[in-house]
Design a protein that fits this description.
Radius of gyration: 19 Å
Largest sheet: 2 strands, antiparallel
Structural class: mainly alpha
Bound molecules: fe (ii) ion
Shape: globular
Number of strands: 8
Number of helices: 13
Order of helices and strands: EEEEHEHHHEHHHHEHHHHHE
Helix content: 40-55%
């Protein structure tokens, strides 16, 4: 049962206000907005063939550490077959243009979570149709970031609590925007957008629920891994691959995420490509996390500019 009070507004890219701050978001309030929008229909287009998505995707996949993960030619071929099945509607694709133009980190991140989560799903989800459904959720998992001011998304110094709240707003905003565009609150992509920052032990956001869905968890682990191994605005040096995998292992040890997804990710990072059930993980931590990481540090509140 959904019951969330919105801290910030939710608007579409063309600036239509769906919900003002303070709204109590329930399935009923969401249904009313979807109903008001029922006459709209959108064309869909293959995600991989949109703009330079395929070219950019293949480019990112050939740079370290992704080049090891995606080194098997046959696997890439099978992967592209799945990625090609994903069709998205035009307003959703336009959010990608927005990120490509204004926040390239998020654009690249979306493409990598799309490719990596599908690769992991191929091993973990035996049902092919379910795997295809998962693949379609990667491109939209962070769509709610269109509701976060760009200066916060790209801030290089520690975030204040208010700014952190704005970033966390993207999960709920993504759920609402996708319900609006799909005209349905049920699609898997909506659930992924809402829950991909939840954790098994309930320590995540926005609801602090216990993460139980294996599909959402595959996106969550792909999301964490990609955020660690590329430089981010708040951390100009990336984690080295070993430190990133150790960080994720630590999260499995703390029961924040499950071992099967972690083992699958580690299996793909090994040149011999073992089956994930054969992967043994050493308890020893030898990687070196970057020093200039301000993530997780809370800054003093600044005076807010009324224009924001
Ligand atoms: Fe996210
Ligand atoms: Fe993400």
């Amino acid at each position: 049962m959904l019951k969330l009070t919105l801290q910030h507004s939710i608007r579409t890219l063309d600036n239509q206000l769906l919900f003002p701050p303070g709204t109590l978001l329930t399935e009923e309030t969401l249904d009313a907005v979807i109903y008001s929008h029922r006459a709209y229909s959108y064309q869909t287009y293959p995600f991989l063939l949109y703009g330079s998505v395929k070219e950019d995707c293949l480019n990112f996949l050939s740079t370290p550490p992704y080049e090891t993960i995606f080194s098997d030619k046959k696997q890439i071929h099978d992967l592209l077959n799945i990625l090609e099945t994903v069709h998205l509607s035009i307003p959703i694709l336009q959010s990608l243009d927005y990120f490509k133009q204004h926040d390239f980190y998020t654009y690249a991140h979306i493409l990598m979570v799309f490719a990596l989560s599908t690769l992991l799903a191929k091993d973990l989800i035996p049902d092919y149709q379910e795997c295809i459904q998962l693949s379609a959720t990667g491109p939209t998992h962070d769509i709610g970031k269109i509701c976060v001011p760009l200066h916060i998304l790209k801030k290089t110094t520690p975030l204040t609590r208010t700014e952190r709240g704005f970033i966390e707003h993207h999960a709920t905003a993504g759920y609402v925007l996708l319900s609006y565009y799909y005209k349905d609150i049920q699609p898997l992509a909506n659930k992924v957008a809402l829950d991909h920052h939840e954790r098994r032990d309930g320590s995540g956001y926005p609801r602090g629920i216990l993460l139980k869905d294996p599909i959402v968890e595959i996106i969550a682990v792909s999301d964490i891994y990609d955020a660690l191994i590329v430089p981010r605005p708040y951390r100009s040096t990336a984690y080295d691959n070993r430190a990133a995998l150790e960080e994720i292992t630590k999260m499995a040890e703390q029961n924040k995420i499950g071992w099967d997804v972690v083992r699958t990710l580690i299996a793909h990072n090994r040149k011999s490509k073992p089956h994930y059930r054969e992967v043994t993980i050493s308890a020893e931590k030898r990687g070196t996390p970057p020093e200039n990481n301000v993530y997780g540090i809370i800054a003093e509140e600044e005076k807010t500019d009324p224009k924001d």
